[in-house]
Sequence to fold (228 residues):
Amino acid sequence: MDEISRLRRLLEESERQREESERQRKDAESRVLEEQRRREEAEDLAKTSQPQVLQQYLEACHSLSLAIQVVTDRSLTTQGDTTDPTGRIFPRRIIPWDDFARRQEKIWDQLLVGYPFYSRAVFPSSHQLEYVASLISPISSEIGLRHFERDTVENAVQKLVDEAYSDSSLRDSLGLQGSVTFESHTNLGNAVDAVSESFEHMSIGGDDGPPTAETFPRLRSSIRRRTS
Fold:
């Protein structure tokens, strides 16, 4: 009887040791997997925090533009009349820009051949653009649309042109005569009235075709001279 009890205790002890070994093995595997997960997360975070090259930046900006949401419930949108355009510059006529694709392809050819600009990682990281995306709210008013356009279009364009203009060779090749800034008409005050008369009969897409890189700086320079 004593021998049977002894053997039973030995079996129980052996089983306990086996279970303990199995538990320790699983704990070790869990620690390895957790460490691997943390390392991968750190690597992903470091990667998304790195500045992007041009192609990556443009794709990320495109995803921002696709994030637009419009509130369609009229009870949740602003009420009243639409904005009165009096005293503001606005197009009288808009027509398709038929040769846009050809002009765009020509510029891409210039960027891809002989310029390090295309491969330089100088643009905001995907982590930064994800933060911008997290702040986008459904559009229910004119000011909401203005904020969306500023955050997803104006800031992106300004950063792109700033970087292109900082490259002297690319600047000369593209004929850039300055960078670009966007100003809200709400901050222009009487300055808008000073220039609006000259553009009262402005038409987009006339015989001279769409505006070019050369016309924008001259237009901006004219506005600055008349508002200073």
